[in-house]
Write a structure and sequence with these properties.
The structure holds 2 protein chains of 2 kinds. Chain A is mostly helical. Chain A contains 22 helices and 2 strands. Chain B has one domain (about 5-480). In chain B, a hairpin with a 4-residue loop joins strand 1 (about 65) and strand 2. Classes of the chains: A mainly alpha, B mainly alpha.
C-alpha cells in the first residue's frame, strides 16, 4: 500500500517524527530527543530513496502521483507528484535534515526537543512544497514552513535574532501573499487549482505579466534576487548553524524551483518578455554582490552574500531559455545546497570553539586544526568553482549556455570565477593560513568524530558530483527538455 | 393578521426556552448562597445545551416564518444560533474563575448573559425592522450592564458609560434610518421592503439618506471605521471576561443583522451601499492594523485587531452574491473561534489581584507552559492568516470572493495590509518564545478550562487542515436562507 504513497510518506514521516520528538518534553530527556530525531531523519531520508531508484528517467512528466479531494468547495485537491526537477531537490532536503540533526547534537543544549522537532517538521513541509501539484496545497506548505524557521532563528539565534527573524518572516510573507492573489485569479480562469490546468490555460499578455510579477515577488524574495535580498544576510548571521544550513541548502532553492514550476510555465510569454529584466537582475547579483562579499568582516555574512551571487547564476541559467543553461541551473542548485551547507557548518565548527564569526579574530587555524582545514579549504574551492568539485559543473554549464545567447552575458557571468575565487580564497587565507594570531586559536581542538563524519560525507558528495554529475543531469534531462518545449510555445490567446 | 397560533410558538421554541430559563436562573439566583453559586453556572450551561438540542431537533432545510413574518427560522438562523450557544458556553467556562475572584460571580451575571444571548437569537431570526431592532436593544442593554457589573471599578464604569452613550447614539441612527425607509416604502418586513424597492419608489434621495443612517448604525455596532472609537476603550475598560463576551458571540449576531438588513431587505440598493462598505473596509483594515502595532496592552491590541477583522468581514459582504456572503460567514465564525481562544488565554494568565493585560505578561510563556504557549502560537498565526491554520482559509475565502466580484485592487490592498497585521501577532509569539519570563507564577487552570482551551486552540489547526466541513456548513446555511 505504501508503494503508491511514497510522496505522502516522505512528507508526513518527518512531520510525525517531529511531533513525537516534541512529546519528549523538557531538556531532561534531551538524549532521547536527539536519538529519536536522528532516527526520524534517517527514516525520512530512506523513505525518499525510492524516488530515485524507481524514477523513470525518460519520462519528463509527473510521476509518483497521488491525489484526492481536499476542499471540494473550491475544487482544491491534495495532489502530489514529482518530475526530474523536484526529485533531486527532495533528496537534498531529506539529506540535509540528517546533517542538521547531527550538527545540532552537542551544540544545542537548550530546548533540544523543540529544536529537533522544528527541523523535522520543516523538512516535511519543504518536501511538500516540492511535490505539491495543487496551487493551494503548495501555498499551504510554502507558508507553513515559515513558522518553524521563524522560531528556529528567534529562539536559538544570535544577539540580533528578533530583528532578523521578523524581517525574514514579513519579507517572505509579503511576497507570498501576492502569489495567493495570482492563484485565486487563475482559479477564476480555470475553475481549478491544479497547476497542470494552468499550464494549458491561454492568457493575454497583460494578465501574464501581472501573474509573472506576482510569482516573481514570492520567488525572487526567496532565492533571493537583488534587490530584495537584504533579509538573507541578517537571517543567516543570526540563525543557529542548523538554521543557516537549511536556509542556504534548501530554502533558497524553493525560489528557483518556484520559477521553474510556476512562474515560467504558467506565463511563458511574460517570462520571455521580461527575460532581459531577469537576466539583468541576475547579473547584478553575480557581479555586484560578489564585490559586496569581498568586503565582509563576518564569515557568515560573506557566505550569505556568496550564496546570493551563486543564486544569480541559477536565475541566469533559467532565463536564457536553453537546455545547457537550465540544466546548469539545476546542477548549480544541488551543488550549492551541499557546498553552502558545508561552509556554514565549517563556520559553525569554529564558532562553537571561539564564539566569534569575525574573520579578524582568526588566523593560522591550520596549525591547530589540520584535518578541519583540509576539508574547509576543499569546500572553499568548491565555492569558488574549482574544476573537479560540484561547484564547477553548474557554473560552467550556465556560462556555456549564456555564451550561446549573448557573449556579454557569458563574459559578465564568468567574472564570478575570478571574484568568487577572490573573496573565498582571501577569507581562507585570513582565517586558516598565516601566523597563529592569538592564543585562543592556538588552543583550538581539531574535529571530533561527529564533525568529521558530517563534513567528510559532504566532502565526498561534493567531489563525487564534481567528477561525475551524470546522476543529476540524467534525472533532470527529460523534464528540462519538456519544460523548454513548453516554454517555446506562446500561450497568448489565438496562438495555441 | 393571523392570530397567534401554535406553529408560531414552535418556530420560536429555542427563544422561548431561553427566555424561561433566563428567568429561572434569575429567580434561583436569589436563593443561592456563595457556596452553592455553581448551581447558577450549571443551570446556564444546561440552558445552552437544551437550546442547542431544541434548535437541532426543530431544524429543517426549509424556511419557516412566524408572528406574521416578523420572525424566521431558516438554516442561517439555526447554524448561527448553534454557533452562538457554543461561543457563549465556552465564554462561561473561561470566565468562571475570573469572575469568581472578582466578586462578579452572582446570579445576575448568568441571567444577563442569557438575556443577552436571547437578544442575539432574535437578531439572528428577525425578519422585520422592529424585531431586529428589539433583539439588538436587548443584547446591547445587557452588555452595558455587564460591563458595569464590577461597579467599584472606575475604569469599568467609565467603559460602560462610553459604551452606553455611543451605543445608544448608534441605535438611534439605525432607528432613524429605518424610519426613513419605512416612510418611503410603507412596510417594515424585509421581504416586502425588498420587493417594494425592486418595483421602484418615487423618492430615491430619502431612501439613500435612510440607507446612510442604517449603514452608519450597523458600522457602529460592528466597530468599522469611522465608527470604531468605542471599541478600544470598551475592550480595555471592561473586565476581561466581559470583553470576551462582547468580542465573541455578539459578532455572529451582528453579522446576521448586517446580512438580514443589507442583503435581504436592502439588496436592491446594493449599488448604493457597496461604495460605503468599500470605504469602510479599506479604512478599517488600515486603521485597525496600523494602530494595533502601537499598543502595549493586549486587550487594546486585540480591539484594534478586531477593527481590521471587521474590515475583512465587510470585504466579504460587499463582494455581493452568495459567494461573498458565504465567505463572510466563514470569516466571522473563524474570527469568533480565534477570539474565544485568545481572550481565554488572557483570562488564563490572570489571577486574583493580577490582570494579565500587558503584552509583557506573555513574556517567556513558552518556558512557563510550553503547551499553552503553543496554543497561543496557533491562535496568533491564525489571526495573522498563516496556513495551515483556519485563519488562512478565512482570508482566502474573503479574497477569492473579492476577486470574483472584480475588486482586484481591494484584494491586493488587503493582502498588503495583512502583512502589516502579521507584525503585531508575531510580536506576541516573539514575547512568548524569544524572551525570558518576568513572572514565574505557575499556571494552574482548572481542568475544564484546560480541556476547552486545548480543544479551542487545536481546533484552529485541525479545522485548518480540514476546512471543508465548516465551509460546507456556511454554504448550506447561506444558500438555503437567502434567495
Amino acid at each position: 500500500m505504501l508503494e503508491n504513497h511514497i510522496l505522502s510518506l516522505s512528507i508526513w514521516l518527518p512531520i510525525l517524527a517531529g511531533i513525537l520528538v516534541l512529546f519528549t518534553g523538557s531538556d531532561r530527556n534531551a538524549p532521547l530527543a536527539r536519538w529519536l530525531a536522528l532516527l526520524g531523519s534517517l527514516a525520512s531520508f530512506l523513505a525518499t530513496l525510492p524516488l530515485v531508484t524507481r524514477f523513470d528517467r525518460d519520462d519528463g512528466g509527473f510521476q509518483f502521483q497521488e491525489g484526492w479531494d481536499w476542499i471540494p468547495s473550491f475544487n482544491i485537491h491534495y495532489h502530489l507528484g514529482v518530475d526530474g526537477i523536484a526529485v533531486p531537490l527532495i533528496l537534498l532536503t531529506s539529506f540535509t535534515t540528517v546533517i542538521v540533526v547531527l550538527a545540532g547534537w552537542e551544540v544545542i543544549q537548550k530546548r533540544v526537543a523543540q529544536y529537533m522537532a522544528a527541523f523535522l517538521i520543516m523538512s516535511g513541509l519543504m518536501i511538500g512544497v516540492f511535490s505539491a501539484l495543487d496551487g493551494i496545497l503548495f501555498y499551504v506548505f510554502w507558508e507553513a514552513m515559515l513558522i518553524p524557521m521563524f522560531l528556529v532563528i528567534g529562539i536559538w539565534g544570535g544577539a540580533n535574532r528578533v530583528y532578523a527573524t521578523i524581517k525574514f518572516f514579513l519579507y517572505t510573507l509579503l511576497g507570498s501573499l501576492l502569489m495567493l492573489v495570482a492563484f485565486i485569479y487563475l482559479f477564476y480562469q480555470t475553475n481549478s487549482f491544479e497547476i497542470i490546468d494552468y499550464y494549458a490555460l491561454p492568457l493575454p499578455m497583460m494578465a501574464q505579466v501581472l501573474i509573472f510579477i506576482a510569482f516573481f515577488m514570492a520567488f525572487a524574495v526567496k532565492i533571493p534576487m537583488w534587490p530584495v535580498h537584504t533579509w538573507l544576510p541578517d537571517a543567516h548571521v543570526e540563525a543557529p548553524t542548523g538554521g543557516s544550513v537549511v536556509l542556504a541548502a534548501v530554502m533558497l532553492k524553493l525560489g528557483g524551483y518556484g520559477f521553474l514550476r510556476y512562474a515560467m510555465p504558467i506565463a511563458p510569454d511574460a517570462a520571455h518578455y521580461l527575460s532581459g529584466f531577469m537576466i539583468t537582475l541576475s547579473l547584478i547579483a553575480v557581479v555586484y554582490i560578489a564585490f559586496v562579499a569581498l568586503v565582509q568582516q563576518d564569515m557568515k555574512k560573506l557566505i550569505a552574500y556568496s550564496s546570493i551571487s551563486h543564486m544569480g547564476f541559477v536565475t541566469l541559467g533559467m532565463f536564457i531559455f536553453n537546455p545547457l543553461g537550465m540544466e546548469g541551473s539545476m546542477v548549480q542548485m544541488i551543488s550549492h545546497g551541499f557546498v553552502s551547507g558545508a561552509l556554514f557548518l565549517c563556520v559553525g565548527v569554529l564558532y562553537d570553539r571561539m564564539h566569534s564569526r569575525q574573520i579578524a579574530d582568526y588566523g593560522g587555524v591550520v596549525n591547530a586544526m589540520p584535518t578541519f582545514t583540509a576539508l574547509a579549504v576543499l569546500f572553499a574551492m568548491a565555492n569558488a568553482g574549482l574544476p573537479g568539485t560540484s561547484g564547477f559543473v553548474g557554473e560552467f554549464l550556465v556560462i556555456l549556455g549564456a555564451l550561446q545567447e549573448n557573449f556579454w552575458y557569458a563574459f559578465l557571468a564568468a567574472t564570478t570565477l575570478i571574484f568568487g575565487a577572490a573573496y573565498t580564497l582571501w577569507m581562507v587565507k585570513r582565517v586558516y593560513f598565516g601566523e597563529v594570531t592569538n592564543h585562543h586559536v592556538a588552543a583550538l581542538k581539531d574535529l571530533n568524530p561527529r564533525e568529521l563524519l558530517i563534513l567528510g560525507v559532504l566532502a565526498l558528495t561534493v567531489i563525487a558530483f564534481g567528477v561525475y554529475p551524470q546522476p543529476i543531469t540524467e534525472m533532470t534531462h527529460a523534464t528540462v527538455s519538456q519544460l523548454l518545449s513548453h516554454l517555446a510555445q506562446s500561450k497568448l490567446p489565438g496562438t495555441l | 393578521m393571523n392570530n397567534l397560533i401554535f406553529s408560531d410558538l414552535y418556530t420560536a421554541l429555542p427563544e422561548i426556552f431561553v427566555l424561561g430559563m433566563a428567568m429561572l436562573v434569575l429567580l434561583v439566583g436569589l436563593f443561592l448562597t456563595e457556596r452553592n453559586r455553581y448551581i447558577s453556572y450549571i443551570l446556564a450551561q444546561l440552558t445552552l445545551l437544551g437550546a442547542a438540542f431544541i434548535t437541532t431537533a426543530t431544524h429543517t432545510p426549509g424556511v419557516g416564518y412566524a408572528f406574521s413574518g416578523m420572525f424566521v427560522d431558516d438554516p442561517l438562523s439555526d447554524v448561527l444560533k448553534l454557533m452562538i450557544y457554543l461561543a457563549t458556553s465556552v465564554t462561561l467556562v473561561y470566565a468562571r474563575s475570573y469572575i469568581a475572584v472578582r466578586g462578579m460571580y452572582r446570579g445576575e451575571f448568568f441571567a444577563l448573559v442569557l438575556f443577552a444571548m436571547l437578544g442575539m437569537m432574535v437578531m439572528v431570526s428577525g425578519q422585520n425592522f422592529l424585531s431586529l431592532y428589539m433583539g439588538l436593544e436587548l443584547l446591547s442593554l445587557c452588555l452595558y450592564t455587564l460591563v458595569a457589573l464590577d461597579r467599584d471599578n472606575p475604569r469599568a464604569s467609565e467603559a460602560a458609560m462610553k459604551y452606553f452613550v455611543l451605543g445608544a447614539l448608534a441605535s438611534g441612527m439605525l432607528l432613524y434610518g429605518m424610519s426613513m425607509i419605512y416612510g418611503v416604502t410603507g412596510v417594515l418586513e424585509l421581504s416586502q421592503i425588498s420587493s417594494a424597492l425592486a418595483n421602484g419608489v418615487p423618492d430615491h434621495a430619502v431612501l439613500v439618506l435612510g440607507l446612510v443612517f442604517i449603514v452608519a448604525g450597523l458600522a457602529f455596532k460592528l466597530g468599522a471605521v469611522p465608527f470604531q472609537m468605542w471599541i478600544p476603550d470598551v475592550y480595555h475598560g471592561s473586565p476581561t471576561a466581559i470583553t470576551l463576551l462582547i468580542g465573541s458571540a455578539p459578532k455572529l449576531a451582528g453579522f446576521a443583522l448586517v446580512l438580514r438588513i443589507l442583503a435581504q431587505g436592502l439588496e436592491p440598493l446594493a449599488a448604493d451601499w457597496h461604495g460605503m462598505l468599500v470605504l469602510m473596509a479599506v479604512l478599517s483594515i488600515i486603521i485597525g492594523n496600523v494602530t494595533a502595532i502601537a499598543q502595549t496592552n493586549i486587550k487594546r491590541m486585540l480591539a484594534y485587531s478586531t477593527i481590521s477583522h471587521v474590515g475583512f468581514l465587510l470585504l466579504g459582504i460587499l463582494s455581493a452574491g452568495m459567494n461573498g456572503y458565504i465567505s463572510a460567514m466563514f470569516y466571522i465564525a473563524t474570527y469568533v473561534l480565534m477570539t474565544l481562544g485568545t481572550f481565554g488565554m488572557v483570562l488564563l494568565l490572570s489571577r486574583k489581584g493580577f490582570e494579565a493585560e500587558n503584552l509583557d505578561d506573555f513574556k517567556g510563556l513558552s518556558q512557563r507552559s510550553p503547551w499553552f504557549a503553543f496554543l497561543m502560537l496557533l491562535l496568533m498565526f491564525s489571526m495573522a492568516g498563516v496556513p495551515p491554520t483556519l485563519g488562512f482559509y478565512a482570508k482566502f475565502a474573503v479574497l477569492q470572493a473579492a476577486l470574483q466580484a472584480g475588486y482586484l485592487w481591494l484584494a491586493v490592498f488587503a493582502v498588503l495590509m495583512a502583512v502589516v497585521g502579521a507584525f503585531y501577532y508575531l510580536r506576541v509569539v516573539k514575547l512568548m518564545y524569544f524572551d525570558e519570563p518576568l513572572d514565574h507564577t505557575p499556571i494552574a487552570p482548572q481542568l475544564d478550562v484546560t480541556i476547552v482551551l486545548g480543544v479551542n486552540g487545536l481546533a484552529v489547526l485541525l479545522l485548518g487542515l480540514m476546512p471543508q466541513r465548516m465551509m460546507e456548513l456556511c454554504a448550506y446555511a447561506v444558500a438555503h436562507s437567502l434567495q
